[in-house]
Write a structure and sequence with these properties.
Shape: elongated
Radius of gyration: 23 Å
Distance between the termini: 56 Å
Low-confidence stretches: 4-14
Strand content: under 5%
Structural class: mainly alpha
Largest sheet: none
Number of strands: 0
Order of helices and strands: HHHHHHHHH
Length: 223
């Protein structure tokens, strides 16, 4: 399992458990390819299909350290421009620009930091969609026993997994919107439910109490 997932299952909980492992696996791949001659198209396929997928499992579970992300980007960047151990070559483009879509002049490489946050955001989405799952029940009991996932805070001395999930929630919150049912638990002013992206809130809130719910907007005939 360790070789398949690039993640040591026997040390879950420590911040640096995957740093050396993921970096060394990427380096081993690139070092093995550095002696071969590849076209630009072949390099692109190898980097996107092989190298950038190595830390995917770890990224779907925890927030990778910034130093590790930076090192992985540097290794990929060096391989693309032909740099080798003891022999550096000029980089003709910035990494941030290379991560842009090809339609925008980039090469479509993944920004691993953004990819990491997106993968963890999916874990938060599962907590919302599957509240009766075992992990959702455990996290709710630990971190938001009287609330919900969207209003939960990063508790003092929270586990690294929970800190990572809260970090992933930041990107998901930008597009979250309530789907109206009864409207009992949806606050008119505070919650996102109005069809006006990207805020999904009133630009000019009506003079209503903060605890006024969407249900309270219903007429007596149910409309």
């Amino acid at each position: 399992m360790k070789n398949i997932l690039a993640f040591p299952p026997y040390r879950v909980g420590a911040r640096g458990i995957y740093s050396d492992l993921s970096k060394s696996r990427v380096w081993d791949k690139l070092k093995g390819w550095s002696m071969s001659v590849f076209s630009a198209a072949e390099k692109e396929v190898l980097l996107k299909a092989v190298v950038q997928t190595i830390p995917t499992y770890a990224m779907s579970c925890f927030k990778l350290p910034k130093t590790l992300i930076k090192d992985l980007h540097r290794l990929i960047d060096d391989f693309w421009w032909g740099s080798k151990a003891g022999k550096s070559k000029m980089h003709l483009g910035k990494w941030n620009e290379m991560c842009n879509n090809k339609e925008k002049g980039g090469l479509g490489f993944q920004d691993l930091r953004c990819f990491n946050q997106a993968l963890i955001a999916k874990q938060g989405w599962r907590l919302l969609r599957e509240p009766n799952s075992l992990v959702a029940k455990v996290l709710k009991a630990c971190y938001y026993p009287s609330g919900d996932f969207l209003t939960a805070r990063k508790a003092f001395k929270a586990s690294f997994m929970w800190q990572s999930i809260i970090w992933g929630r930041e990107v998901a919150e930008k597009s979250f919107r309530w789907r109206i049912g009864s409207g009992v638990n949806i606050a008119v002013i505070q919650d996102k439910w109005v069809l006006n992206p990207p805020m999904f809130k009133f630009f000019d809130p009506p003079p209503l109490p903060e605890d006024f719910s969407v249900f309270d907007l219903h007429l007596h005939n149910g409309e």
